[in-house]
Amino acid sequence: MLDRLVGDARRIWGLDPAAGVQVVAAERLVATPIEPSRPVLVVPLAMLVGADPEDGANGAASKEGAVAAAPAIEPLPGRHGPRGRDPLAVLARLYPADHGVGRFGAGETTIEALTPADLTVALYLPAVAPELASAGPWSMAWIADRLRRPDGCPWDREQTHESLRKHLLEETYEVYDALERGATPALAEELGDLLLQVVLHAQLAAEAGVFDLADVQASIARKIVRRHPHVFGDAVAETASDVNRQWERIKAVERAEAATPAEPAAPSASGAPSASGAPEPGASEPMSVSDTRVRISPEGEGDPDAGTGIRNEGGSGPGAGPASNESAGPASNESAGPASRENAALKGALDGISRSLPALAASQEMQERASALGYDWPSVEGVLDKVAEELAELARAETDRDRREEFGDLLLVVVNVGRKLGIETEGALRAANDKFRNRFRRIERMVAERGVAIRDLDFATLDSLWDAAKAEERATVEERASAKERATTEDRATAEERAT
Fold first, then answer.
1. What's the pTM?
2. How many whole angstroms separate alpha carbon 5 and alpha carbon 124?
3. Is the pLDDT of residue 367 over 50?
4. C-beta separation of 53 from 121 below 8 A
5. Measuring CA to CA, which residue among 99, 98, 84 is closest to residue 29?
6. pLDDT above 60 (res 302)
7. Cα 66 from Cα 267, distance rounded (Å)
8. CA distance from start to end of the chain
9. Most exposed residue of 6, 8, 97, 402, measured as fewest CB within 10 angstroms of its CB?
């Protein structure tokens, strides 16, 4: 039967079997993975056991006992949302509305014109262009690859892991904002934006020959299966506390295995941890993905004055930033007329910036957007002058409120200096934090070697230790650079020797 269907589809609609074809039982369509960029044959089960494809429903009904009464079919996870149990709705989500559909023995129709009766005959769905297979599992991977090709998008071709970092951060916080409103269409859009960042980083890694999107999916899937032996294996966890303890135990074993690589043990059929507590993942080496979890608290939680909004009453110039007008927030529109409310509802250039972004990243993004509209200092010298001005204002501030406000203005201008110099301020501060952390560890080690406590040392001693830590750090960096240079020289000499 399938041979006949493939032959007819090849003759009538130009199916190329060499390119592959998917066969889906009509009764199980809602539960079957479908890749729209590949041809699909949708065939009633009765026909698969011998009925004539042109006999349609009558032929299927005449096959007494050919198909037993099937239990209710559960929709495919990931496609089990709105109308996930409706096969016609599933096809409408996977294919463009005007996509052609071939009906064996009954002519042609389109996706939007399909009826339940059409599912009683064999159907042929030609492949759609990959960029139109938007709900397919591999559409975004294909699109990302296409954008990065020589004749793709100039902007996308220029991107690197580093240049995309700020976009990943921004999209993450935009999802965080959308979550406050629960499951909404806006959340679906924001999750899609975040997914794009994952796909782009996987594409860059694939180009470098390191990993691809399949590796990303396999990594997290194996990890979750490995850490849930009470679901996928024989372990028992009756409470959430049991799960947490088991999770941490498995993570500890993974960290130990990652630190001391060993020959992988033969996986058990259950995927459950071994007697030693080590998980036997059924095929996966220890993951190198970080398990660090970050809890993000709402802005200003517990303190009405702890928000990160920037106010610049009395400040002037682009360095200080004109963006914040707290007195014009939504609450002030309640007594305003219709025209005022309409104007307030209009989104400005800065409205799309997530309020949950880290303050440095948000400040830089705001000032970049303002600059794109022409609101900027002509040169960095003007911004540096503004830094001096804000420092002087901070020094003159007399109250805690004034000092806090002037300090915020100073930070905003410093961010603008970084922006003018092409520095990602969030990354620069993280690097400075890392440097401070490393130097402080050196000081702690030095103090421990003296057998004293840091709190017992005076400032002059601590300052000298800081200088010693800096010198030690500098020597370490120089030694590493020298070792790298020696290795490069040796490699070059070896290459020249081989060439001769």
1. 0.62
2. 9
3. yes
4. yes
5. 84
6. no
7. 40
8. 67
9. 97
